[in-house]
Amino acid sequence: MKIMLLGAPGAGKGTVAKLLTAFDGSVQISTGDILRAAVKAGTALGKEAQGFMDRGELVPDSLIMGIMEQRLQEPDCANGFLLDGFPRTIPQAEELKTLMARLGIKMDFVVSIEVPREVILDRLTTRRTCSNSACQEIYNVKSNPPAEGGKCKKCGSPTIQRADETEEAISKRLDVYNEKTAPLIGFYEKEGMLKKVVGTSSDVVVNAIKAALGK
Ligand code: AMP
Question: Crossing angle for the helix pair 90-103 and 61-71, nearest 10 degrees?
């Protein structure tokens, strides 16, 4: 499948993408994960991105488009992919359209995952992420806690609260989402590519996507 997941931070894009990759071997492409790995590895990209990320702001479009142009041409994308957290602005969506046409890639559709703001705020402040960049398993201290001592159940590394998951950064990220990313819903509606899924449970969202794909 070739699908794009739209939704506010904490809407469940990452969880839904992971569940869908297990289903048909499509790869999850999360620009947030790529950037966090670059920050951790201390690369030039990471150094440039870190300040924006810690403040809950978007990284400049030019950096993101460079990453995605390369990533979409890697061989594992041939089986399909789930775009998680990209595009985030109208200029990124416009450039992606041009890039896809150039690479001869046709998306199945765009899914907008719609979740109430209170649910999102609660989810993000209670979220913990595995600090191992090769794992990045997501936990929730209330509904899906990590193992004893806050260790990841999959790889045993410590789980952490991301720097951009403090209340201040979250509120900034939601404002940025409303201002810069929410207009993409109208953009893809006009393109005739949008499917809205209202759901706080990832299983409901995954089933709706499978049904839309006819699977
Ligand atoms: P995420 O894990 O998708 O919430 O992304 C974490 C942070 O990475 C965001 O708050 C942005 O600073 C940055 N980021 C991720 N994807 C993008 C993108 N497509 N455009 C700009 N910044 C991004």
Answer: 20
Residue nearest to atom 12 of ligand 1 (CA): 53
Number of domains in the chain: 1
Ligand 1 center–CA 136 separation, angstroms? 15
- Rounded to the nearest whole angstrom, what is the distance from the C-alpha of residue 59 to the centroid of ligand 1? 7
162 in active site: yes
Q: What torsion do the CA atoms of 125, 129, 133, 134 make, to the nearest 10 degrees?
A: -140
Torsion of CA 73, 77, 78, 83, to 10 degrees: -110
Whether 88 is a known active-site residue: answer yes
CA distance 142 to 38: 30
CATH (domain of 171): 3.40.50.300
Residue of 71, 97, 151, 162 with catalytic role: 162
Q: Is 102 a catalytic residue?
A: no
In a domain, 56, yes or no: no
91-128 pLDDT, tens per residue?
999 999 999 999 999 999 999 999 988 888 888 889 89
User: What are the tens digits of pLDDT across the range 43-64?
Assistant: 999 999 999 998 889 999 999 9
Residue 36 appears among annotated catalytic residues: no
What distance in angstroms lies between residue 58's CA and the mean position of ligand 1's atoms?
A: 6
For 131, residues 6+ apart whose C-beta sits below 8 A from its C-beta are 152, 157, 158, 159, 160
3-state secondary structure of 90: helix
